[in-house]
Amino acid sequence: MYSGKYFYNKYFLKKILWILTITQMFQCANNFSDIFPDSTDKTGLNIASGQAGTISANLLVTDMHGNQYPLYNDLAGVKGSVYYFTMWCSICMAHSGEIINNIKPSFPGFNYFLVDYVSSAPLQSKQLSDYFGFTGLIGVLNDSSGSLLSYFHATMSSVVVIDSTGRIQMNEDFKDGSRLRSILQTL
Amino acid sequence: MINLKKVIQFTFVIWVFFAGSGIYAASCCGGGAAGALILPKFSRVMAEGSLQYEKYNGFYGSDRAYYQDPAGSDLNQIRLKAAIALRVSDRFQMALSIPYVWNKNYYSGMNLNSSGMGDSIVSVTYETFDDVKCVYKVRTLQDLMPALYISLVNTIPTGISPYSNVDNSFKITGRGFYQTVMSTLIDKTVYPYNFSINGGYGVHYGRPINREYGVYKKPYEKKLGNRWNLGASAGYTLFMENMDLVTLVVSYDYINEAGARIDGVVDHLADFYKSSIGLSLSYATSDKNRVIKVGYTLNPSYAEWGSNSPVTSIFSAGVSNVFR
Question: Residue A152 has what DSSP assignment?
């Protein structure tokens, strides 16, 4: 019959746990914020550019045909523009489909764009747009320079909404799209 | 009596050996998979080191079709895991698994490597039996009784998630949520054949989020969806002249996760499922104290094998040592 005595051997437990955990903690000491999640609103501490409530810079953008133009051109004559950052992954495709099939028809009067930040050239963005069947359904921008990505501090499934005055109304993860809908509703 | 020094040395050697690997890899979808490390009956301690190399080969869309990744892209993730299982009593055991993850993403317009700790696993397992259920010959009905393990597998979010202080999705090594999976394993060996069935149901715990990719956002509540998995395997063992064992196992696994809840509203765009098939080969010493294992698991690149999830192939290698 096993007595369980060994389990209580402090020497044993300490040695094993020190080797397995502390060694790794040295290498990644700053990534334990998920252990104790924070619910405090700290948006006032943001120093990142391109966040909601600020006026967007008039960045130079490139479409999938290689045409370059100022971002504010997208705002002329419409209520605003929606930019969804895609790396053509599964969740990106689900979100893109939601924008094209449900959000865009529900909220006309806006320009809608996918921002491809992983292709090195507009031609590749065009090929991917064709492959996924998006061509003609939504605008596709190529951000190989990374200017939009870095200015908006965007990444996979980030969505940015800019109104006709250039004010950024939204810059956050797409999530389920309900936040995007509510923003578009107000514009 | 267990040789403490040996246990520690073995664990340390495995860790140092694998940590010294200069290979880097990546994923947009996080790393780490929940699974309990099972300690054999009548053993007190087991240490295990394993290395997994996961290569991304496209994805299943939400329409269940298979899509390729962009041309010229190369997405990989390497996971090093160090794990230890301890016997607490005759029927209870517990285990700890700590992964370290290397990400490597290459697109035609972007190249990014990163690394960090993955989500850790703490599990408690209950064995419903007192004697070894592996038999060489079936003489009575009792000999057909399988081994049944019931585990509570807990994921601790020690990895880098979208809510950590990172600036992009390529650096993710974990999901950022606590999770508990109740899993069962039914296993029967009648040498040279082995069969097993496993299943589990897991719940994620909700949490507040006030930051996405390093930028603070208006706080909201998020809870990943519940998940369930089912798997089966069959194996054949070959006995060497010195009674060492070589075992070949084929397996099938299915996993399904419901959409997340954001401020209480279900996000159906986030639910997914996928199936995988695997093949593994293990070599065990005659006393079964040391096992060396290599394996290959893949999601077939065909429609209907998954939805809304990446298609990957995983090469794995590991070694475990039991201290009785």
Answer: T
Instruction: State both tokens at A18.
Output: 């020190």
From edge to edge, which strands make up the β-sheet containing B215-223? B207-212, B215-223, B260-262, B265-267
Among A152, A87, A153, residue whose Cα is nearest residue A124: A87
Give the pair of three-digit tokens for residue B55. Answer: 């290569």
Q: Give yes or no for a contact between A56 and A163, defined as CB atoms under 8 angstroms apart.
A: no
B16, B28, B101, B311: best to mutate for the A interface, most A CBs within 10 A: B28
Of B19, B215, B269, the CB nearest to A95: B269
B215-223/B45-60 β-pairing: unpaired
Q: What 8-state DSSP symbol labels residue B63?
A: T
Q: Amino acid letter at A32?
A: F
- In this prediction the pTM is 0.84
Tens digit of each residue's pLDDT (9 = 90 or more) over A41-90: 998 888 888 999 999 999 999 999 999 999 999 999 999 999 999 999 99
Work out the pLDDT band at B187, boundaries 50, 70, 90: very high
Nearest to B318 by CA among B80, B155, B56: B80
- Contact by Cβ (8 Å): B104, B26: yes
**Phi, psi of A118, rounded to the nearest 5 degrees:** -110, -5
Cα–Cα nearest to B253, from B306, B203, B202, B178: B306
Contact in structure between A51 and B177 (CB atoms under 8 Å): no
Q: What is the DSSP letter of A55?
A: B
And the tokens for A124?
């590749």
Is the pLDDT reported for residue A146 higher than 80?
yes
Note the pLDDT tens digit of each residue in B165-174. 888 888 999 9
% of chain B residues with pLDDT over 70: 89
Q: CA-based Rg of chain B, rounded to a whole angstrom?
A: 20
How many CB atoms sit inside 10 A of residue B103's CB?
27
Q: Count H helices and E strands in chain B, helices first.
A: 1, 20
Helix (H) or strand (E) holding A94, with range, is helix A90-98
Q: How far is C-alpha B3 from the chain's CA centre?
A: 29
Question: To the nearest whole angstrom, how far is the Cα of B25 from the nearest Cα of chain A?
Answer: 17
Burial call B234-259: b when 16+ CB within 10 Å, e when fewer = ebebeeeeeeebebebebebbbbbbb
In A, which residues are within 8 Å of B96 by CB distance?
Answer: 17, 20
Tokens representing residue A60 in the block = 């130079």
Q: What is the identity of the amino acid at B191? A: Y
What is the average pLDDT across A80-105? 95
Residues of A within 8 A of B70 (CB-CB) are 87-88, 118-119, 124, 128
C-alpha span between B164 and B222 (Å, rounded): 15
Kindly report the average pLDDT of chain B as a whole number: 87
Q: How far apart are CA B160 and CA B46, in angstroms?
A: 28
Can you tell me the ipTM of this complex?
Answer: 0.80
